Amino acid sequence: MGETMASWKYALMLVVSLSLRAGAACAGETLTLAASEYPPYMSSQMANGGVAVAIVREALRRAGYSAKAVYMPWARAVNEARDGHLDGIVGLWTTPERLQRFLFSQAFLDNHIGFFKRSGDPIRYRALADLKPYTIGIVRGYANSEAFDAARLQTDETLSDASNLSKLAAHHIDLALIDRGVANYLLGGSLAALAPKLEWLPPPVVVYPMHLGISKRLPQAEKRIQDFNRGLETMRQDGTLDKMLKEAKI
Q1: How far apart are CA 70 and CA 126, in angstroms?
Q2: Which of 26, 62, 89, 236 is least surrounded by Cβ atoms within 10 Å, i.e. has the fewest?
Q3: Contacts of 157 (CB under 8 A, 6+ apart)
Q4: What is the pLDDT of residue 3?
C-alpha cells in the first residue's frame, strides 16, 4: 500500500470514528432486538448469540449503544419488531411487504441457499431443470425460493436440516437443499462424522442478504439505522467483519 493510499484510509477511518463518537454522545441506549434459533447465525445456545447477533451487537456498540437479543419463534419475532414492541430484529431478509414496514440496515452477511451432495458424485448443474433426474431433500415447513418451487423438482421432505444431511450421506436422497452456513455449522459439530462425505454444489439457488430491521413506527428508527451503518462500516474498514465471518465459516 502506498503512502498516499495509507493516508487516505487513515483519514477516512478518522472521519467515521468522529461521526460515531458524535452519535454515541446522544445514544447510550440499550436496544432490545428480536432473534430466533437459526445457528450459526442466531442461537441462545451459542456463547456469542450467533454470528449475526454478534455482528449487530458489535456494530451498535461502536455507535454507542448496547444490545440485548430476545430469542423467540421467527414469525413472532417479525411481528413483535414490525409492531414496534421491540427495538428491532436481527437477520431480516427484504421482501416487498417488509419494505413497507421496516427500515433496513446495510447487509452484513449473505445467506447462500443451495445444495449439498455426496463428495465425488458427478452431479453438476447450470439451471435447476438440470436436476430433474434427482431426488432433493427439503425440510418440511421451510419456505423455498420461487425459482426452486417453479422448477417442480422431485423432493423428499424431512423434519430438520440435520436429518436432511444424514439422509444424503445414507444415499436416501441425491441432494439436500440447505443454507450453506447452517450445513457447515452442523458438519463442524454434531454431524462432524459426515463432513468428509458431503460437499457444497455451486452455484447457490438464491442469495439472501441479511439485515438489521427496525420498524418504521419507532420515532428513532432512521437515526438508529444510520448509527448502525456507521458502526458496521468501521468493522469493514478494520477487518473485524471479515474476521467474524471467517471464524463462523460463513
Answers
A1: 40
A2: 26
A3: 137, 138, 139, 140
A4: 38
Mean pLDDT over the full length of the chain: 90
Residue type, 177: L
- What is the residue extent of each domain of the chain? 30-111+208-248, 112-207
Identify the residue whose cell numbers are 441462545: 44
CB-count exposure of residue 150 (10 Å: 0-12, 13-18, 19+): exposed
Q: Architecture of 112-207 per CATH? A: 3-Layer(aba) Sandwich (3.40)
Question: Is pLDDT of 26 > 60?
Answer: no
Residue 124 grid coordinates: 453438476
Distance of CA 138 to the CA centre of its chain: 19
pTM to 2 decimals? 0.81
Count of beta carbons in the 10 Å neighbourhood of residue 218: 16
- Distance between CA atoms of residues 237 and 242, nearest Å: 10
pLDDT at 22: 44
For β-strands 198-215 and 109-118, DSSP reports them as antiparallel
Q: C-alpha grid cell for residue 220?
A: 428513532
Superfamily of domain 30-111+208-248: Periplasmic binding protein-like II (3.40.190.10)
Query: What pLDDT sits at residue 143?
Result: 81
